[in-house]
Design brief:
two-stranded antiparallel ribbon, about 5% strand, globular
Length: about 450
């Protein structure tokens, strides 16, 4: 039996993934601690796909996909059992498996074709519009998180304890909308490109008002790459629309406030005159590197950074980050991670863990980019070039963002969604467009008899 035949027709299979995104709209008041409703929905998603795989009695993965998702399991298990506190290590193992293995693998097996992919991409855009709209309202009414003495920072429903949450959601939605807007002609609905372009332009305001320098840098880099991938003509049209939107935002709505300008300027001072948050980040990076030097192969164990931080950090490290606003009283949030995913993995899991995880991400990037070029060079029904722009864009955004951020908080499940979409595009037979015969599909990724791209 082919894997795709085990899934019902219509939008039903992709609904569990949409539910994960929808539940990210729920208010978050725990400061990024504990499981959320979206995490519970992701567990249901994994269980749903697992039951379908068992019922199909098919081998849904090829060797490349098995290696990309199997190697991290071995490395993470070794790091978990090497932790000083076994209970903490096992808890960390569950979180890492959820984000980097189980949910992405579930999406790889769940999506039957480009139509399902586009449903999930539009769900990302919808979530971003909801959170971004709330963030703009917070800025306008002074009910956001505290920033430079004023409660104006747009954080959506994530609260002051997770100021990166809304920025991540909006950035994902903006990249998804840009990819859909840059779709090559043929094979997409005639309204997709203008509607997606409008959504992308609307999301620039909440991204700016998040005051997240990291999100700005990663999003700007990805949008530039998407424009290059899509070709000069479409790039010029989008740049013209973006310039017009910028004039309206800055001149008409005053988005270019002194605070925003100061935040932009501070990006150029992160080396010469870093502020307190950047100085703390440098100190924690050095601490993670010190842990790796002491344990180069396996690291200090999963979730071991907080316990080893003080013995490796300099005295210049502050007690924590001050948070307030958006319905939360003032409190100091402890600095429990280095805010660099690569250094976090290196310090806690050593070279073994970094090679397994980062190697898988690199493999996804190579496979995705190899399939993106022909899909854009020869557009038409069945090529799904817009899906490739979205998938590769989300993956590149995450890899850039990992240079100054790591997992943690309610929005972490977005990382799993992005990796899952990238895995579908790079590893599945449907990503190449058209139907994949059962015999050929069994050796080329996910077996999909219904690899529609329309």
């Amino acid at each position: 039996m082919e894997w795709a035949r085990a899934l019902p027709r219509g939008p039903v299979p992709v609904l569990p993934a949409v539910a994960v995104l929808a539940l990210l709209c729920a208010p978050h008041t725990g400061g990024g601690e504990g499981a959320t409703a979206a995490d519970a929905a992701s567990a249901v998603l994994v269980l749903f796909v697992a039951v379908r795989v068992v019922r199909a009695r098919a081998r849904p993965l090829n060797r490349t996909a098995a290696l990309v998702f199997g190697a991290p399991v071995l490395a993470l298990t070794a790091a978990a059992f090497g932790a000083a506190d076994p209970a903490t290590g096992i808890a960390g193992l569950g979180r890492y498996l959820q984000i980097f293995v189980l949910v992405p693998l579930a999406l790889l097996l769940l999506l039957r074709g480009a139509r399902d992919f586009r449903v999930l991409a539009w769900a990302l855009v919808g979530l971003a519009l909801v959170q971004g709209g709330l963030g703009v309202a917070q800025f306008a009414t002074g009910t956001g998180a505290s920033y430079m003495g004023s409660d104006i920072r747009a954080v959506g429903t994530f609260g002051a304890g997770d100021v990166m949450g809304m920025a991540t959601v909006v950035a994902y939605g903006l990249i998804a909308a840009a990819g859909l807007a840059l779709a090559p002609p043929g094979g997409v609905h005639r309204l997709q490109r203008p509607v997606a372009l409008g959504c992308a332009l609307a999301l620039t305001a909440p991204l700016a008002l998040s005051f997240s320098r990291g999100a700005w840098i990663a999003t700007g880099a990805v949008l530039g790459l998407q424009l290059l991938w899509a070709g000069p003509r479409r790039a010029l049209r989008v740049l013209a629309a973006a310039s017009a939107a910028g004039i309206v935002l800055v001149g008409g709505f005053g988005v270019g406030s002194a605070m925003l300008q100061e935040r932009v300027t501070s990006i150029t001072r992160v080396a010469a005159a870093p502020d307190r948050s950047v100085s703390d980040r440098y100190t924690m990076w050095a601490a993670a590197a010190g842990m790796w030097r002491e344990h180069p192969v396996t690291g200090v164990g999963l979730k071991g950074f907080p316990a080893h931080r003080d013995s490796h950090a300099s005295l210049g490290l502050s007690a924590g980050s001050d948070t307030a606003g958006a319905g939360q009283a003032f409190r100091v949030q402890p600095l429990l991670s280095p805010h660099n995913m690569y250094l976090l993995v290196l310090g806690e899991q050593g070279l073994l863990g970094l090679l397994a995880l980062a190697g898988g991400w690199a493999a996804l990037a190579v496979c995705g980019l190899r399939r993106l070029a022909p899909a854009l060079r020869h557009p038409g029904p069945g090529r799904a070039g817009d899906c490739g722009l979205v998938a590769c864009g989300l993956l590149v955004w995450q890899l850039v963002d990992f240079a100054y951020a790591d997992i943690g908080g309610p929005a972490t499940v977005m990382t799993a969604i992005g990796l899952g979409l990238a895995a579908w595009w790079g590893l599945s037979g449907a990503a190449r467009g058209g139907a994949v015969p059962a015999r050929a599909g069994a050796g080329a990724g996910v077996v999909t008899a219904e690899g529609d791209a329309g």
